[in-house]
Amino acid sequence: MPDVLDEPIVDLEALRASIRAEYAAVASEPDRGFHFHTGYHLAAILGYPQEWIEGLPPGAVVSMAGTGNPFALGEIRPGERVVDCGSGAGADALIAARLVGPTGEVIGVDMTHEMLATARANADAAGVSNVEFREGLLESLPVETGWTDVVISNGVLNLVPDKAAAVAEMHRVLRPGGRLLAADIVLERPVSATSKLDVSLWTGCIAGGLLEEELVALITAAGFVDVELVRGGDVFAGAPQQSSAADFGTRGAGIRARR
Ligand SMILES: C[S@@+](CC[C@H](N)C(=O)[O-])C[C@H]1O[C@@H](n2cnc3c(N)ncnc32)[C@H](O)[C@@H]1O
Fold first, then answer.
1. Which residues of the chain fall below pLDDT 50?
2. What confidence tens digit (pLDDT) does each residue in 149-168 have?
């Protein structure tokens, strides 16, 4: 396995605290302007259908902070169960809840209290009752083994230092044959060991990014099959705060795979 997937070299608790602080701000001050796009503008860049966005409570849209559109990677069918890993303010979980309908169920998992509170308020505002938001880490998902048909994720895996643990958990919670639809980022140039110590590069979705082949190797090593990488666009260009994304050739990317 490439050394970029080795044990994290930043202090894990300090990194988690910074990531929580950054995304708490995305939940509570969505207009502040970040190193990445957010909100209605981001949804348009990522190609979410307008009618989906209009159907969401504004509070779910303004704090969107993903790097792709997991629903463009594969279908989600009525009656299915979905787990959204790193569900943020809940936009994708609420879209999934509509797609699976009243006979389906959605669990969103996130580690940031402010995001969880916002997501729960957004679910109430949407009047959606088949979605639940649980506090937890991707590295130890609070979801029963084999519970779900689909795992979605959007802009989160790059933020996780122990990616192998997170992907093993995604595999564990899927039923055999279940699908992974994960939007994330990839880098064209590896991040140096020095840059990996820069926590702001982590929270801005750069330092934890992988090269395309590393991302595919990570997912394959967890036991997934039919692993396909789908290239996305430059999702950081023109972000409100200057980003170093271009220095690393950071691009949006999607992974679709099957358990
Ligand atoms: C870039 S935001 C994306 C949120 C959402 N998926 C979206 O598309 O708007 C990343 C989210 O992942 C959460 N997160 C980051 N690392 C996590 C981890 N290890 N476990 C659980 N949640 C995590 C953050 O709290 C934040 O809400």
1. 1-8
2. 999 999 999 999 999 999 99
- 3-258 is a CATH 3.40.50.150 domain: yes
pTM, 2 dp: 0.95
CA of 225 to the centre of ligand 1 (A): 25
Give the model confidence (pLDDT) of 71-97 as tens digits. 999 999 999 999 999 999 999 999 999
Locate the domains of the chain by residue range.
Answer: 3-258
Cα–Cα distances (Å) from 18 to 107, 200, 202, 239, in that order, read: 25, 8, 9, 20
The pairing of strands 148-154 and 131-135 is: unpaired
What is residue 29's DSSP assignment?
Answer: -
Q: Which residues line ligand 1 (CB under 6 A)?
A: 19, 23, 64-66, 86-88, 91-92, 110-112, 115, 137-139, 154-156, 159-160
Tell me whether strands 131-135 and 210-211 are parallel, antiparallel or unpaired: unpaired
